[in-house]
Give the backbone structure.
Amino acid sequence: MHFSSKVTEVLGIKLPIIQAGMAGSTTPELVATVSNSGGLGTIGAGYFTANRLDSEITYVQELTDLPFAVNLFVPSEQLYVPENVEHMNAWLKPYRRALNLEEPVIDISEEQQFNEAINVVIEKGIPVVSFTFGIPKQSVIEKLKARQITLVGTATSVEEAIANESAGMDAVIAQGSEAGGHRGSFTVTSGDHTPLIGTMSLIPQVVDNVSIPVIAAGGIMDGRGIVASMVLGAEAVQMGTAFLTSEESGASTLYKNAIQHSKETDTVITNVFTGKPARGIDNEFIHKMDYYDDDIPDYPIQNQLTNGIRKAAAQKGNAQWTHLWSGQSPRLSQFVSASVLIDNIVKETRSILNK
């Protein structure tokens, strides 16, 4: 049984396994371990400054000679509404008081940070860049393509996948609604919601409508998920939550324990932490925000307003006031090294295929 496909060839990897770029939870050790194990490690650079990204890449390059990716957030057209922000700050005051926090200063230089990150990626000779939250401008795509960098987009519907292909992406991640963390959606459906199509439904429909390779994502945790994805027409899988509980992950012990002790019914999709819909384990902060009687400020504004609260709560061991992103298959999570996890997945995949 060999695992090669168009995707593994394009990405220069042995195994069709990509570790998702989980912003805030990837470490150079995780990225390098995945790449050294035959998959594609990804630096979750969504919140990084150019300097931080530069040093992170340097560190990964010291740990592996194999290809790895950088995942970037495409800047959004955010609306800064002062009254909205004031209202939200008033609502968040009790949390800040309890944690001895100051009101944060809002920084909306997303576009500049993104452009600087693109320059770092080019300077450092990164072979693969993946994008979430939309499609970058054509000028950015052309700049990266001129350097022979492989570009991978994210889609949560067939329409989004077609848009990725038209823009010149080399492959597309079809992210099912089971996926943990932020949705990669950049369109809204008729009900003014972002698409929520399950992985099993999404993959074959995307495969039938684009000619670029499709990477399956959303709820995939083991060999069974890989085989199912390939049968549906995907050429590789991207796994996030599976790597979140690995030894090399940057997730806190509090966070890893929350995933390991949660059930498939415990996650919800909420925009209360960041202003963008994301799947995570239900908790008190989400419930209290149900009573908030105004619009939640757009991403990245809400993200910045709640960031200090979430960090301080996590440090104090309070799982009720922080985000706990997780996909819908937490019962399948393993507390092992990323290399052992990949090894287990490969063995399981082989044994299913050999039956």
